[in-house]
Design goal:
With about 260 residues, the chain is of the alpha/beta class. It has seven helices and ten strands. Strands 1-4-6-5-7-8-9-10 form an eight-stranded mixed sheet, sandwiched between helices. The protein has a two-stranded antiparallel sheet with strand order 2-3. It starts with 10 loop residues before the first strand and ends with a helix. The mean pLDDT is about 95.
């Protein structure tokens, strides 16, 4: 995901949470796109990815959202909320999702990388506590989604909090890219955390993704299904920025939303 466009229908707010660091509370930024009308609305909670290599702290502070995705859902009456996890965008706290010990970039070591997934889930717990109390949200029509690290996070979180969501959507999901020799282990282990989700999931992967080969993505999906997960896998003719090309996935997404309505 790239930075939030300055000219868009997206709005930003800062919410208090129960999270603490150093004995001080941590607030998180949420970016929202609301459809027209009074609400409450069916709502998609959509999670951002990493910052590439994790080597440039300036990138951590870019608020991440996707206007084409938000517009697609808003045109169909959905609200979309993009949470910014700790240390990202205008959110407080330290961005600490699986760095090397010297914080020079993301780590390939599963013992350092996988705890980053747990930290991201803690952030999502704080976000969902807020969202589940919002009067503009139809609580019976909550969907979780995400791209890249946000995509794998969406699947894993749905499996660990299976009663909250009607569906889960994964665009080009993975925690580590193929530059890490450990990426098959880390990604599969994380996706398997989602296999307990009892509803249908949607996996949309670009066949030309530079971080995740399509064969690797299919293997993750097959392992997810073998462990009891439910869903459909679609290989589309795009790259890692697939989310910004709704012409490639709009029909599939529309059918999915109709099926879960």
């Amino acid at each position: 995901l790239i930075s939030m466009p300055s000219q868009s229908n997206l709005t930003s707010e800062i919410i208090p949470t129960r999270l603490e660091e150093g004995g001080r509370p941590v607030a998180l930024e949420l970016v929202a796109r609301r459809p027209s009308g009074p609400g409450p609305f069916p709502t998609l909670v959509f999670n951002h990815g990493s910052t590439g290599s994790g080597t440039n702290p300036a990138v951590f502070r870019r608020t991440m959202a996707c206007a084409p995705l938000a517009d697609f859902f808003a045109e169909r009456g959905w609200q979309v909320i993009f949470p910014q996890r700790r240390g990202r965008g205008k959110s407080g706290g330290l961005y600490d999702e699986g760095f090397k010990l010297d914080r020079s970039g993301y780590s390939c070591d599963p013992q350092l990388s996988l705890p980053g997934v747990d930290r991201a889930m803690e952030d999502l717990d704080a976000v969902m506590e807020h969202i589940c109390a919002r009067p503009d949200v139809q609580q019976e029509h909550l969907v979780i989604g995400g791209a890249s690290r946000g995509g794998i996070l969406a699947i894993a979180y749905a499996g660990e909090r299976p009663s909250i969501f009607k569906a889960a959507i994964n665009f080009n999901g993975g925690w580590l890219g193929r530059a890490c020799p450990t990426h098959p282990e880390v990604n599969r282990k994380t996706f398997l955390r989602g296999s307990a989700f009892p509803r249908e999931t949607l996996w949309l992967h670009g066949s030309h993704d530079q971080y995740y080969r399509i064969a690797h993505c299919r293997e993750n999906f097959d392992a997810f299904r073998a462990a009891g997960g439910r869903g459909a896998f679609h290989a589309l003719r795009g790259g890692h920025a697939l989310i910004y090309r709704p012409q490639l996935w709009a029909a599939t997404m529309a059918d999915y939303l109709d099926a879960i309505a």
